[in-house]
Specification:
- This protein has five helices and twelve strands.
- With 208 residues, the protein is α+β, with helices and mostly antiparallel strands.
- The strands form five sheets. It has a four-stranded mixed sheet with strand order 8-7-9-12.
């Protein structure tokens, strides 16, 4: 705060004040910049410090980082484009593609920090495809329709439990063989053992 006092000839005193507010903002990031350039350094005798300005040519930096992101994109497509006629295998492919896609999108974020317009121009369709994979996985789950076959299950207890588990996982359970893609056989073995007057059972369930 700066204050100044002045005395006039009529012996009246006039006081004025001036207030200055300054702020300093520090930004930290884990982003590695490519193709940084700098001005020639100079020495300030009053500050007793060297000063230098770093700046970024966005096009040069984008061109240098582009191959890194493009390799991640190619890896994603190499998994995503694998073909399979079996819904479960396709779902597994999509799960792996989602992991590779998320890694690719992380690098896209870094690239967009360099130049968002150039990133959108080159990768917008790829980003959209990665964002839609979760829906494709859910669709593949619905295509995995199961017909449950439990020969020894008069109370339907095992059938109901297995059916509920599959439905909770997002799979479709059907009662028609013509509408199913997989037949799930649940074989119950009670492993009965007669020991004198005692009957011991150790049930096991085999799913195939």
């Amino acid at each position: 705060i700066y204050m100044e006092s002045q005395k006039n000839s009529d012996k009246t005193e006039k006081t004025s004040s001036k207030r200055e507010v300054s702020s300093k903002t520090t930004i930290s990031t884990n982003l590695d910049f490519f193709a940084l350039e700098s001005t020639e350094a100079y020495y300030d005798k009053n500050e007793k410090k060297w000063f230098c300005v770093a700046y970024l040519d966005r096009q040069k930096s984008f061109d240098q980082y582009f191959p890194v992101v493009n390799d991640k994109r190619n890896l994603f497509y190499s998994i995503y484009n694998l073909e399979s006629s079996h819904p479960i295998e396709r779902m597994q492919i999509l799960q792996k593609a989602k992991i590779a896609g998320n890694d690719f999108v992380d690098d896209l974020y870094n690239l967009s920090m360099i130049s968002k317009p150039l990133t959108e121009k080159n990768f917008s369709k790829d980003r959209l495809l990665v964002s839609n994979i979760a829906g494709e996985i859910e669709k593949a789950k619905l295509d995995c329709s199961f017909l449950l076959n439990v020969p020894v299950d008069s109370s339907k207890m095992i059938y109901s439990s297995l059916s509920e588990i599959l439905k909770n996982l997002g799979f479709n359970v059907t009662n028609s063989e013509s509408n199913c893609f997989y037949i799930l056989n649940a074989v119950v073995d009670y492993n009965r053992q007669d020991e004198d007057d005692l009957i011991v059972m150790n049930p096991s369930l085999l799913i195939e």
